[in-house]
Amino acid sequence: MALNAEIKSQLNQYLQLLEGDLVLKVSAGSDKVSEEMLTLIDELASMTSKITVEKVKLNRTPSFSVNRVGEDTGITFAGVPLGHEFTSLVLALLQVSGRAPKVDENVIDQIKKIKGEYHFETYVSLSCHNCPDVVQALNIMSVLNPGITHTMIDGAAYKDEVEKKDVLAVPAVYLNGESFGNGRMSLEEILAKLGEGPSADALSNKEPFDVLVVGGGPAGASAAIYAARKGIRTGIVAERFGGQILDTLSIENFISVKNTEGPKLAAALEEHVKEYDIDVMNLQRAKGLEKKDFIEVELENGAVLKSKTVIISTGARWRNVNVPGEQEFKNKGVAYCPHCDGPLFEGKDVAVIGGGNSGVEAAIDLAGIVKHVTVLEFMPELKADEVLQKRLYSLPNVTVVKNVQTKEITGTDKVDGITYIDRETEEEKHIELAGVFVQIGLVPNTDWLEGTLERNRIGEIVVDKRGATTVPGVFAAGDCTDSAYNQIIISMGSGATAALGAFDYLIRN
Ligand SMILES: Cc1cc2nc3c(=O)[nH]c(=O)nc-3n(C[C@H](O)[C@H](O)[C@H](O)COP(=O)(O)OP(=O)(O)OC[C@H]3O[C@@H](n4cnc5c(N)ncnc54)[C@H](O)[C@@H]3O)c2cc1C
């Protein structure tokens, strides 16, 4: 496999930016993946005199590590880091060569101060858009701290390991041989998981805010920027900065941007927020709200933040089917992100629960990878757009089963099938499969507000045209509210409305 001209030209440009010399230590056999890896490495070495190659025996073959001369950094790629991992390879080369990673100075300090031995391994698929963030974060940690190592493992090249460890969702991170976490994790999240986050006292001791935004998706980011632009003291506390857009790949309806990817848009939101004097408290989950002299927001770690006004923008999350087996087999065959986890079911049978747009899109996507897809729809007809249904029905390896209710996702240590009831005949049926993708919509993240403000029948916060809730000084925006449609541009608009509403409230009170 020779590299295509576009990748070669990109590499050429990046390699100009190398600061110091690098040694790639390569462990190769005579298999096809080793061959592809060697082609990539030979091409790299032929493009710059700063890279030399040493043949060695590493823990895994095929794999290669990226090192400084005379100093191993602990960054290893097991497989060929192309596809979505190409950027991870380029960044590893640049950072090991001496270019500083683009992260906050205090995060760099935090990483350098970590004591002990941490050997991370991350199983990825090259088509997973959430994986590179994790790979790149752990690589940065390896570059900065000699006690930390990280190996990216392409699941497709290491099928035996993946089967043995029952990895059915990527990225899957292991620390010193034990499972550490699944799914997208930012550098800050990994540090927090290692117990390196800010203390509850440090958060509680903050001066009261004028506007405190709870939630860091498109609505929260927009609200915080609009508030900060009024010159008032603004904070944003978020469980996972970026929100739902982190879980989507292609966005084509964010007006003025023809096409972008969710994680890219999330990074742009963060960059825009950081342009302003906004106190960003990421990886903190709010668990309660109370109006006293100030409005107090209690966090899960026990900290209490005070503010004159609060904007709630906690968005929404995947809706669960709530049948036996769903919780037990999460990441063991029950999945929610077809882009991420689809490749792990290559050649296998899967089901998609839900026949709306997201379910049918997922089924079409999966049909290109897996052996067979069964779509299960509760209603007598699919709800997806006509054009999607047409495409779905044209596929030879898809079966659509309508008017059925999922009863149970079955398995022992991982999913082995699904049981459903035909709603017309009441007959119970079982199909054997390896994976179930749940695609039945979203629920608002408002449980933590129980008993504090008015919510509608489905838990959405009721707001007026200024974004005000039924509690004076508390505003809300985005997917957590009763707005008619849930879209990025709509959330951002309502975030702006809520911030202007809060500012208006502040000057009147
Ligand atoms: C797979 C997928 C694809 C999509 N594609 C598109 C698309 O192409 N175009 C489009 O316009 N829209 C799309 N959407 C919809 C869009 O992503 C949402 O409408 C938008 O993200 C809503 O923004 P939000 O800020 O209201 O909420 P969210 O994006 O849900 O953000 C909520 C924020 O609140 C935080 N949070 C939640 N609970 C708490 C708590 N208790 N304490 C602190 N923080 C909390 C979350 O961590 C997050 O930071 C898609 C959604 C999904 C899931």
From TrEMBL:
GO terms for molecular function: flavin adenine dinucleotide binding; NAD binding; NADH dehydrogenase (ubiquinone) activity; NADH-dependent peroxiredoxin activity; oxidoreductase activity, acting on a sulfur group of donors, NAD(P) as acceptor. It catalyses: a ubiquinone + NADH + 5 H(+)(in) = a ubiquinol + NAD(+) + 4 H(+)(out). FAD binds at residues 210-225, 469-479. GO terms for cellular component: cytosol; protein-containing complex. Its cofactor is FAD. GO terms for biological process: response to reactive oxygen species. Homodimer. Binds 1 FAD per subunit. Residues 209-493 form the FAD/NAD(P)-binding domain. Its EC number is 7.1.1.2. Transfer of electrons from NADH to the respiratory chain. The immediate electron acceptor for the enzyme is believed to be ubiquinone. It comes from Oikeobacillus pervagus. Keywords: Disulfide bond, FAD, Flavoprotein, NAD, NADP, Oxidoreductase, Redox-active center, Ubiquinone. The keyword NADP applies. This is NADH dehydrogenase. Belongs to the class-II pyridine nucleotide-disulfide oxidoreductase family. InterPro entries: AhpF_NTD_C, AhpF_NTD_N, Alkyl_hydroperoxide_Rdtase_suF, FAD/NAD-bd_sf, FAD/NAD-binding_dom, Ferredoxin-NADP_redctase_2, Pyr_nucl-diS_OxRdtase_2_AS, Thioredoxin-like_fold. CDD domains: AhpF_NTD_C, AhpF_NTD_N. NAD(+) binds at residues 349-363. Residues 124-194 form the Thioredoxin-like fold domain. Disulfide bonds join 337-340.
